[in-house]
Amino acid sequence: MLNGCVNGYGEQEMTELKKELFYAGLEPEEYAAVVPDARKENRKLLPIYAAAGAVLFSFLFLISMIPGGWFSENRWVYLGMVFIEFGFYVCARILSDKHPDIIDPLAMVFIATLYVFSFYISLSHPDLPAVTPVALLPLIPYFFNIRPIYEILLAFCACVFYCLLSFQMKSGYLAVSDLWNMGSFTIVTFIVTVVQARMKYQLMYQSRKNRYLGETDILTGVRNRNAYERNLFYYGKNCARNAACVYVDVNGLHEMNNTHGHAAGDQMIRTVANAMKKRFGDKNIYRIGGDEFVALQMDVSPEQLEQDVKAVREEINASGYAASFGTSVHDREGIDMKSLLEKAETEMYNDKRRYYSEKSHDRRRRN
């Protein structure tokens, strides 16, 4: 029994350690959810670091050109680093837009380049103890949002590689001193990496969760009015040919709530939302009122829009419910999203009047 408890405790510890190293303390699905946010931030950070590096090494290169000035022995190394940093800047600005998955490997190569540069600067003075690599190690975890295990492995490899070179190029005393300093600061780097990753990823996850709650209608899973107000003009600015609006109002929600209760009314709303999701995608649907939805589309033909609306209407009717629809499409040139919305809303009200003009749908008879 004791062995079982010990084994169980050990398994639990290993599970927690795996979470820290591979998922920054989050659950695997939580980590996967924030990876796009982490990469997006890395795409912002890498050009900044690369540009700052290019400026710094350009400054050092200019100083090294002064006759009798400092750093003259490293002149061409500085110039090479200027071109390398500029290359990282170009890749981060151009390639990462088309290939977002490349940003994390690019950040790792950027870090490795800094390690190699620090090794060269340190080993070019074999009569002095390591300073630059030791100072760089605990700073690296603050640079990017990278899976902790990758940064730890990179720091470990850097430590081992540098110590091997140090024993080859420095005297025994200095090599042992480098081994002690690099080993100690590598362990510190491991701890800092885990702590920083946990803090950064937990913050991103909480921010993503808050953003989801602030932009999502909890009942239906589509976006809410806050998101609608923020994104309305996005479609007009980013469409290539046209933008389209589908305005939907659920028929008979008030009567459903009064006769069958709010749970039945909620089911009615969810049914309409689910039917719209299948055709318009949940990211383009907004619940802007109790029984009102708006679906915004880009670069869709009027014929396709008509087919989508017909399919949604038929699915809603087949579920025993009804909704009124209004649509409008406008070319990109001279588009006014508010006018687009108003036109669709007017058509929706016309459709609703036709619906209630029928005897079987008269509101008073339903009540």
Word description of this protein:
The chain is α+β, with helices and mostly antiparallel strands. It has two domains: about 1-215, no CATH class; about 225-365, 2-Layer Sandwich (Alpha-Beta Plaits). About 70% of the residues lie in helices and about 10% in strands. It is built from 13 helices and four strands. The chain has helices at about 1-25, 30-65, 75-100, 105-125, 130-135, 150-170, 170-215, 225-240, 255-260, 260-280, 300-320, 335-355, 365, and strands at about 240-250, 285, 290-300, 325-330. The protein has a four-stranded antiparallel beta sheet with strand order 2-3-1-4, sandwiched between helices. A hairpin with a 4-residue loop joins strand 2 (about 285) and strand 3. Helix 6 (about 150-170) runs antiparallel to helix 7 and helix 10 packs antiparallel against helix 11. The radius of gyration is 30 Å and the shape is elongated. Residues about 365 have low confidence and may be disordered.
